[in-house]
Amino acid sequence: MAEAKKKKIVSADTGKEVEAGSKRSVKQAAPVGNATGYRVGAVLLWIVAIALEVVAVLMFIGKIDLKFMQVLYQMIAALVLDLIFVIIGSTLWKKANHIKPASEKNPVLFWLWNNMGLIVCAFAFIPFVILALTNKEADKKTKAVATVVAIIAMLIGGLVSYDWNPVSKEEKDAAMTTITTDVYWAPFGRVYHTHEDCGHLNKSEKLTVGSVEKAIEEGRTRLCSSCAKKDDIQGVATDGSSTSDDSSEDTTTAGSNE
User: Fold this and answer.
1) Mean pLDDT per 10-residue run, the chain (258 residues)?
2) Could you tell me if 194 and 183 are in contact, meaning their C-beta atoms sit under 8 angstroms apart?
3) pTM of the full predicted structure?
4) 47, 111, 134, 198 - which has most CB atoms within 10 Å?
5) What values do phi and psi take at 123, rounded to 5?
6) d(CA 179, CA 172)
């Protein structure tokens, strides 16, 4: 295990540095964010993304021509903007899901709700790809390049939009009920810790301290398995990975970028 570095600990609530070892007792945290606002923002951005795909289609079939640049470059610009709006919208949607997660009682609906961004991404690019592949009148070079750009954009958007670290209502409720003190997380980690001196945080020079609810909002949806074992915490979702996996998640990147 790597030698522990001196850590700077910052409050998730105020952004100010706090003393090491200072830990609040949090019995019932207040809501930390507005899920509805994030969802509305995501939907609006996705609508813009779909509209940009429509613009790209109209450019492809010659209904829109901006004149000051080649049609191919116009389509590429529209597709890139399409991708940007898809990704930002998906980021907001995932943020909302961490604030107000869905129930996992219905696994299918739970997956669909958490990966709405992935579904939107498919709608934002697949129609264009189909049109480009089936249009026999388009210039071959324009057709080939536009298709490749759209497919690459769709793959990037899909990977970013997919929720690789979802949390359910049941998991969040269990964590908030069981853990009644602040927790710690690293800048680039994917789990939260009940101990600032956890061995998996040895390389981290900066930690954030806050409530479990705030940690989950920030995308740390699982408790470190080592901390859970140390505190004999049961019934709370943990990372469930090996010691080496824990370390890589919370230390490697954070230590090298602080």
Assistant:
1) 67 79 58 83 98 96 85 94 98 95 95 97 97 88 94 98 93 92 90 91 89 92 94 89 39 36
2) yes
3) 0.81
4) 198
5) -65, -25
6) 11
* Residue 5 confidence (pLDDT): 61
**Residue type (1 letter), 82:** D
- Distance of alpha carbon 160 from alpha carbon 40, whole angstroms: 19
CB of 165 closer than 8 Å to CB of 202: no
**Rounded Cα–Cα distance for residues 164 and 94 (Å):** 10
Rounded to the nearest 10 degrees, what angle do helices 35-60 and 71-99 cross at? 160
Helix residue ranges per DSSP H, the chain: 35-60, 71-99, 107-114, 116-134, 140-161, 169-178, 212-217, 225-231, 243-247, 253-257
H or E element, residue 191: strand 191-192
